[in-house]
Amino acid sequence: MSQCRTGLLAASMLAMAALASPAAAQTVTAARDGVRSVRVGGDVSAVFGPRDDEAFFNYTDYEHNALRIARVRLSGEWRVTSGLSFLAQAQTENVDSLDAIAAYVRWRPWSGRTLVIQGGRIPPVIGAFARRAYGPDNLVIGSPLAYQYLASLRPNALPDTIDDVLRMRGRGWQSSFPIGSTVPGPGIPLISSRWDTGVQVGWRHRSLELSGAVTMGAPAAPRLKATNDGRQWSGRVAVTLAPGVVAGLSGARGAWIDRDVLALLPDDRRESTQSVVGADVECSRGRWLMRAEWLRSGFAVPLASGSTPIAHLGASSIFTDFRYRLHPRWQIGMRLEHLGFATVQGTGGPMAWDAPVERVETVLGFRVRRNIDVRGGWQYDWRSGGRVRERGFPAVQIITWF
Amino acid sequence: MSAVSVSRLAAVLAIMAGSLSLHASREQQGTGLVRGRVEAIERTRSLPRPTIAEIAGAPLMNHDGAERRPSVVYLEDGPRGAFTDLPAGRARLDQRHEQFVPHVLAITVGTTVAFPNNDLTFHNVFSLSKVKTFDLGRYPVGQSRSVRFDRAGIVYVFCDIHSHMNAFILVFTHPYFAVTDDDGRFTIPGIPSGTYSLAVWSEAGRADAQRVTITGGSSVEAVFRVGRQR
To answer: What are phi and psi of B215, to 5 degrees?
Structure first.
């Protein structure tokens, strides 16, 4: 764990600990300004699935299998005044480390207006899935490919030629490139589940929501401190088209490669932009809930050798979630998704720069209590490359939240 | 036994029967009331979970701090005849500002409760209680769904979308109950004469039931102290 992360984590945990006793006192003391001072929430989940030491379909950028994981998350919100709050969230996966997912200040300059300014380690603006709680609000057990599946690109290692990229097809769980860090390591998803650091503004008026952010990293590579050159600009507009129907458009552009690696390249090849555009929609009515999200990402990848200085590697993802509640206790869910990669010209001919993946996941959930779910599911993955081309995974999840 | 003795016994029996009949009649006709107060600790209202992932400015819900939650005072053993011919009533549990209003609702068996959505967001009312398990699905502002409650007991009501929303519905087989007001006061009118066990239900904790005797036109005072006092 880096010193910076440790410091941030310690600060957030200290803040939560300090706030715990006022929270208890708050039960008998009315708060100032008509709002409560402290809120605490969290969720605990455990997913039991088979080992996957060959295909790594569910390997995440936290370097864990999303279908074989125990996760504890704790969130805290301290409202100093009705307009100023401090928020933090800490998480541990498989109890091997503790991460400060979020730690930021929320400021509402005008009480009568729904304008919010947030600064610190903040939620991502782009897309929709990353802002949903993993457990109760995720309709199936696994995570969407765009937010979880690791492509072979790495911020701290670069290919020499496009063939270096093609050699790593289907090996995003541990890829290696000749420039920069030569130690094999995990690649990056299109959008990381980690949160970036910076400032954002959000505004809501009737059915319209606007948000924008300036942060230090890129959608695929958020940063706690600036180790890259450039800033990420991201924005989202969402409209409630009808009751229960929300559609959003978002985009982001940031620098995803570490500056130490870029420095190894000639000046004319120091390009490190990741651009993402996305569209998302959620429809719900009665017992149905449907969500869909499309994302397109473009990575500028400098190539040290060859006539083409910069390779522009595109990738796109689309997924659709469904949920139907059969009974107050029973529900079924499904996710269908595709993660594709653009074709590039290698010495062996045209080929997608990483192996496309398709995934189907179904789940049957049983609500034991209001805040305890037990889910059993089956996920099947197909990949057009890599050592293992397809595999199915059963999984059982127990989750509780408060 | 002589004829005189037989006639005297018959007369006594007749008087006794008349007396019993009169007593029963008085029990049915003479009613009184129980009034009083429930002193319960203030409970914090359930708050929304921290809105960590919120960006666009959501309306700031004024979830007040501690408040005195309503209690329900009721007769454990209702008068004879109180369990039949209950009218099929109607009641309402609003969804407003991400809260159920009222927080505690007391009804009789057979009552149909409407759950109108008066918020700008969707709600999804459900209950997993044995007394009544239901899920009304998601519906927007201006719409309502209804549930009929046919069994007595306590029903815990939640919203699937907003985990801080909760309410209680207490379903009785008789009409002798009252929900306390903001000051903890209650009145149960129209109780037939008799001796009853008066009980209280409260989120704040328990209190022993009390024996109360109602005579025609009487008013009985009762005070319950529930849970830890401030």
So the answer is: -120, 160
Q: Convert the pLDDT of each residue in B125-136 to its tens digit.
A: 999 999 999 999
Beta bridge partners of B224: B38
Cβ contact A48:A396 at 8 Å = yes
Inter-chain touch A123–B51, beta carbons under 8 Å: no
**B49 and A210 in contact by Cβ < 8 A?**
no
Interface test with B, best of A29, A35, A40 (most B CBs within 10 A): A35
pLDDT tens figures, A236-250: 999 999 888 999 999
Residue A193's pLDDT band (cuts 50, 70, 90): confident
Helix (H, G, I), strand (E, B) or coil at B78: coil
- Output the pTM of the full model: 0.84
Mean pLDDT of A25-41: 53
**Mean pLDDT taken over chain B:** 81
Q: CA B58 to CA A113: how far, in whole Å?
A: 9
Give the ipTM of the model, two decimals please: 0.79
Beta bridge partners of B135: B126
Q: Which residues of B touch A89 (CB under 8 A)?
A: 50, 52
Backbone φ/ψ region at A222: left (φ over 0), alpha (ψ -120 to 50), beta: beta
Distance CA A169, CA A171 (A): 5
Instruction: Indicate the length of chain B as a whole number.
Output: 230
From B221's Cα to the closest Cα of chain A, the distance in A is 28
Q: How many CA atoms lie within 13 A of A256 on its CB side?
A: 27
Mean pLDDT of B32-57: 81
Q: Of all helices (H) and strands (E), which one includes residue A22? A: helix A3-25
Task: Answer whether A202 sits within 8 Å of B140, measured CB to CB.
Answer: no
Mutation target vs B (from A110, A284, A324; most B CBs, 10 A cutoff):
A284
